[in-house]
Give the backbone structure.
Amino acid sequence: MFRDIEKGAEDTRLAAQRIALANADIVVLLGVDYDLNGLALNALAEKIAAIGGPLYPTRFALRPNTGMDSGQDLDGDGRRGEPEDAQGYGAFSGAGGMAILSRWPVRRDGVRDFSRRLWRSFEWATLPATRDGLFPSAAAYDSLRLSTTGHWIVPIALPRGGSLPLAVYHATPPVFDGPEDRNGFRNADETLFWVQRLAAYPDEPLVIIGGANLDPNRGDGRRGAIRSLLDHPALIDPFAPDSLTVDWSDIGLGKMRTDYILPTRNWAVTGSGTIWPPAPSDQESRHALIWVDLSPEQ
């Protein structure tokens, strides 16, 4: 069973209430700040348990790229060390990271973290050009990582044996850039990372889970990237094509689908759904909590 939520830091209590209501075995959190000793994640897990939700003894997070200083002027404004110059936008190292809460343990010796890979190191990647000011400098081009937040594969040990590998990521919004469309290209390639992974390992059992920041039919961005993931023959899409996961009506964009749980066909889907914030006035996130029930394919 899965639940996916992007949590705003302004109201942990409301996020904890929704997670408790979901009563999931495993929770993937996006937009949760990282700290070295896991104090914030521990506090959230304890709050969930205190209000009658599940006890999550496993609390897992890796250092994200968000807020990590690149050492370069990535936005070309002549200054370094600003949030826009981090490997992933963030005012401090670890801002808006990712985390996993689980009833079951992580097989830590099987965790794979691809977050350090440079964007230009992928042969299939599409980067904006360095000429005509479209990329601030060759040094910036050479130092930028693909992952805005991270790309992880985290195997969860199942109580009846075997493991459930979570392929977790959170892509940059495909906006807030210039005519070079750097964020648009990067956003698309962050999703295409998993398409390429599936092509290289077609029988690998995974559950791709996270925020693509990309709707297949609406809004800005290179929508072919998410369509290629949704249409991949190795994957099951547990949701209807017109599903919605985020409400950006307050900024004039309406509702879209930007968050996904996509298991490979090694798994059987037995249920899925969304849990929206109770009301706009009680909204710790614009995003719905999305969930999928899974069992091993027989």
